[in-house]
Design brief:
Helix content: 40-55%
CATH topology: Endonuclease I-creI
Strand order of the largest sheet: 1-2-4-3
Largest sheet: 4 strands, antiparallel
Radius of gyration: 16 Å
Structural class: alpha+beta
CATH class: Alpha Beta
CATH architecture: Roll
CATH superfamily: Homing endonucleases
Number of helices: 6
């Protein structure tokens, strides 16, 4: 299956997600781990689309998401910053998802600059992630309170 850049943009507008998960992690210097990911989920009958995305971008994994759904997922900061973000800068999303992408891009830039390794940077990332569509607000609010106490 050969994919076209404009088709991918439209498909991701409908089916993709830019997501940033923040978890407590005692072994990390700031006590938290930031996990950015780009994900597209499809029913197993359309798994060939996910493998085509993996081939197109040259990175990521295809794996089970839940039940009979599979996902194409990219978590590598290097691949996100050098492949995924530049692609969607060149081929702009048209839906509300573009707003999430722009916030995701800000977080990727902060991480490239090592800001996720310090409590102050984690706070910035939390504040941006909280504005994104799939943010777990109660948990990030708790993390923000905990970080402020430490600073």
């Amino acid at each position: 299956m050969k994919l076209d850049s404009q088709w991918i943009t439209g498909f991701v507008d409908g089916e993709g997600t830019f997501y940033v998960r923040i978890t407590e992690h005692s072994e990390k210097s700031a006590g938290y781990q930031v996990i950015p990911e780009f994900r597209v989920v499809q029913h197993k009958k359309d798994i060939q689309v996910l493998y085509a995305l993996k081939e197109f971008f040259g990175c990521g994994v295809v794996r089970i998401n839940h039940g009979d759904r599979y996902e194409f997922r990219v978590r590598s900061l290097k691949h996100l910053s050098q492949i995924i973000v530049p692609f969607f800068q060149k081929y702009s999303l048209r839906s509300k998802k573009r707003i999430d992408f722009l916030k995701f891009r800000k977080i990727i830039k902060l991480m490239e600059n090592g800001k996720h390794l310090k409590p102050e940077g984690i706070l910035k990332i939390i504040r941006i992630a909280r504005q994104m569509n799939r943010c777990r607000k109660p948990i990030t609010e708790q993390f923000e309170r905990e970080i402020r106490v430490k600073i």
